[in-house]
Amino acid sequence: MTPEEILKGLYDQTLVGNAPAVLDLTNAGLDAGMTPETLLFDALIPSLEEVGARFERGDFFVPEMLIAGRAMAGALERLRPLLAETGVATLGTFVMGTVKGDVHDIGKNLVNIMLEGAGFHVIDLGVQVSPEKFVDAIREHKPDIVGFSAFLTTTMPMFKANINALVKAGLRDQVIVMVGGAPVTQEYADAVGADGYAADASTAVKKAKDLMQRRRVMAGT
């Protein structure tokens, strides 16, 4: 296969969520001497961006996004150590977790995959994450953004508890706070004092990039 055929195959197979083919093509590209950056930026990321665009148009739904995301996750697992070796710059660091009292993680995991695909370094704290654990993770990893996910209306108040914990720890001004989940609205995000809200994984990536850009402009960097 030519490099062009490999890239086209990667794009097409990621789009339809064919994980075995995506991994095979990733390995074929590396074996042919293609760089991990080329595979990522010329095929995988554009394909996932198209998945997001189709979702927004109503052509794709959550299942299609999930299988495409999982297909890309397999390729990323193969490429991540190689990209680290080449020193590819990440867009930023994102700490993510489902709040205390909530064990739902499908939405969170999909957002993580989309963020990684877009170039973020994601630290996933898992589910049932307490305010203290978020505080510890922010101190340790110094992320640009922290994301709180909630699927249950009964656990949404943890957003405010988490933000209060960040304020108490003196960390609130050091990190962008994003929230999301099935029952969450923009109004609720505003009410608890979050910096950003996203209704779905595709929007989350755009919002994260936008918030980071705005922070850089305000910081004059």
UniProtKB/TrEMBL annotation:
Residue span(s) of domain B12-binding N-terminal: 1-91
Highest taxon listed in the record's lineage: Bacteria
Ranges in a coiled coil: none
Pfam families for the chain: B12-binding, B12-binding_2
SUPFAM superfamilies: Cobalamin (vitamin B12)-binding domain, Methionine synthase domain
Keyword annotations from UniProtKB, A to Z: Cobalt, Metal-binding
B12-binding domain: residues covered: 91-221
Protein name according to UniProt: Cobalamin-binding protein
Lineage: Bacteria, Bacillati, Actinomycetota, Actinomycetes, Micromonosporales
